[in-house]
């Protein structure tokens, strides 16, 4: 599973309309997002129009390709493009990805396996 986080800037003068467009998103677009393999998808809006998106997928390249070829996604993204500052291309294809530097579950799992390895080594003596 891959976790993907991205950042975009929504034009401040269009914030209310942007929020309204997502309350709710078109049902056929929701279906396309799910069909692409993206899940646990959320958008968070910060001060000044900073938008952070997050989703999980098993194959991000396949999800990107699916949405790039989707007529529904193309229509949605054509309407959404005007909301963003400094964006070249479709928002779903051109968003700036963020690098993950910490994940609690991953580190707990690693710490647990390290503790198990240490316990095994201690018992081997």
Automatic annotation (TrEMBL):
For this protein, the record's SUPFAM superfamilies field holds: Dimeric alpha+beta barrel
| Taxonomic superkingdom | Bacteria
* One Pfam family recorded for the sequence: rhaM
Entries under Gene3D superfamilies matching the protein: 3.30.70.100
Question: InterPro entries, per this entry?
Answer: Dimeric_a/b-barrel (IPR011008), Rham/fucose_mutarotase (IPR008000)
Q: Can you say what this protein is called? A: L-rhamnose mutarotase
**From which organism does this entry originate?**
Microbacterium ureisolvens
The taxonomic lineage of its organism, from the top, reads:
Bacteria, Bacillati, Actinomycetota, Actinomycetes, Micrococcales
């Amino acid at each position: 599973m891959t976790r993907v986080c991205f950042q975009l800037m929504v034009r401040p003068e269009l914030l209310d309309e942007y929020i309204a467009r997502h309350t709710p998103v078109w049902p056929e677009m929701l279906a396309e997002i799910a069909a692409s393999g993206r899940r646990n998808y959320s958008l968070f809006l910060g001060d000044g129009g900073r938008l952070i998106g997050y989703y999980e997928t098993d194959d991000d390249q396949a999800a990107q390709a699916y949405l790039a070829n989707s007529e529904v996604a193309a229509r949605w993204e054509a309407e959404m493009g005007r909301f963003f500052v400094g964006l070249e291309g479709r928002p779903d294809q051109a968003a700036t990805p963020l690098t993950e530097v910490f994940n609690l579950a991953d580190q707990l799992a690693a710490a647990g396996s390290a503790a198990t390895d240490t316990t095994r080594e201690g018992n081997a003596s």
